[in-house]
Every structure is written in structure tokens, then in C-alpha cells.
Amino acid sequence: MKKEEELEATRLNKFLSHNSKYSRREADRLIEEGKVKVNGVVVENLATKVTIEDEVHINKTLIKEDKNKMPTVIIYNKPKGEIVSKKDPQGRKTIYDSLGKRYAHFMSVGRLDYASEGLLILSDSVEIVDTLMHSNLERIYKIKVNGPIGPKVESAMMHGLELEDATDGAYKGNKIRSMKFAPFLGYNILTNGEKFSKIKVSINEGKNRELRRFFAHFGLDIMDLKRFEFGGISLNNLPTGKSRFLSKEEYRNLRDFLNESEDDRSF
């Protein structure tokens, strides 16, 4: 009988994120707002810990530990012309139209815009999505721009860039104006010509249309953008418009990363 293991205390926000639809940050907010009860008592202390013998409610909903819950993570090779959204007011095709009802409840780790393609990670775990989305894991892209990659562009990729006006390359109406671009982790110019250039870049941020804004500052429009890798997870030979589960090694690496991230967040 594993009595000691069963009674091991877990931080309340972790318990809620593992056993409900809320992320850890959302759980913290619910606790601060006084919407969480432990054994009938409202708890507002974020350091609160619980065991499986405690009765936890969010408002009137009882949150139970689900020992059999196994999060699922999939990779989708998004084609151009699909929106990363549940619905589109303009009636355009979404990734969920292609993925089908089986994955209708999955959430995406960030987005690729309508004209972009490539690797998209989705999961039914809010915790996994939230952690990966706010991570500094490496993202690798292949990009085609409508002009040459000059010294100023290379310097900005190597040293970073800060713009008070980063609206070029953004969606019309987007409220983000200024933006700071960290130095690229790496880049490789594949072809460099007056009419177009192809470049492979590695970054560890996922800001709103970051690459389109970056190159637009230098008068370069991105003609093609494809993400090939995110945090060591790659497309490999996955066809466009198809999905796959993570391999055993990818799951193991993801689990190790999540455990490390959890240790970094604990206090």
C-alpha cells in the first residue's frame, strides 16, 4: 500500500492545471479571486498545497484527480491557406477543418499565419501548451524574401534589433507597435540575389509575426515561410496537411523539459 506516496502534497495550482482545463497561470488567478475552495474553505494563498484526500472546488465544481489522464501531443504540417483558429469570421478554412472532430478540443502552441506553413504542435493539455508557448526553445524556419540579404540585415540577426515602430509586416489593426528582437540563434543564407533570397533562421522567441516584422524593417517582404522544427521536434518526412503523434524519444524529451520547467517555477 502506497499511503505515503498517495498523501504527497502538491501545489494547488499544479493540482488544478493537471486535473482541469485551466493552466497554472489561470489557476493562480482563480485562487487570487477567491474562487477556489479546499475542504469547504476559500483559499487565496498561492503557496497552498493539497493531497488526494483534500476536496477541491472551483466555484461549485469538484475537481478530482485523474490518475489515468495521459496528455496527447501531435504534430501537424500546416499548409498555406489555413487559419490557426477554431473559427474564422471570414469563412476561411481552419486547421481544425483538416484535423477533424477528434482533435477539436486540442490547443495549438502559438500560431502560424494564413500565408505560413509547417510544423505546428497541438495538445489536449493546457499545461503543455502554456509551457511550450512561453518557452525559449529553438524554432527553425526556412524563409524566402523578395530581395538581397545585406550587411544591415545580417548585423541585426547577429546582434538583435529594437524598433519603436514595428508595424511593417504586421496585420492591419494589430495593437503591437514597438518590438525588441533578440539576436538570432543562428542563420544560414542559402541563396542571395537581387530578386529573391532564401535563408534558414533559428530563433527562440514566438512574438506576433516576429519574422515578418523583422525583415519588413529592411524593406523585405517574406514570400514563403515554413517552420521545420520546434524544440527539437521536427517535421521529418510528414506530408503537408498530415498529422502524427510524437515519437517515444520526443515524448521523453518533452517530459524532461516539462519537469525542468516545473522545477524552475517552484518556490
Give a structural overview.
25% of the residues lie in helices and 27% in strands. It is of the alpha+beta class and 267 residues long. The strands form 4 sheets. Strands 7, 8, 9, 10, 13, 14, 15, 16 and 17 form a 9-stranded mixed beta sheet that branches. A 4-stranded antiparallel beta sheet has the order 3-2-5-6, with no helix packed on it. The chain has a two-stranded antiparallel sheet with strand order 1-4. α2 (12-19) packs across α3 (24-32). Mean pLDDT is 90; it is low at 1-5.
Q: Would you list the SSEs in sequence order as H and E?
A: HEHHEEEEEEHEEHEHEEEEHEEEH
Report the principal-axis shape: elongated
Rg estimate, integer Å? 21 Å
Q: List the uncertain runs.
A: 1-5
- Strand fraction band? 25-35%
- Mean residue pLDDT: 90
What would you call the quaternary organization?
Answer: single chain
For the biggest sheet, the summary is: 9 strands, mixed
Task: Tell me the span between the first and last alpha carbons.
Answer: 30 Å
Kindly state the percentage of residues in helix: 25-40%
Count of helical regions: 8
Number of strands: 17
Q: Report the structural category.
A: alpha+beta
Supply the key terms.
267 residues; alpha+beta; nine-stranded mixed β-sheet; four-stranded antiparallel β-sheet; 8 helices; 25% helix; disordered N terminus
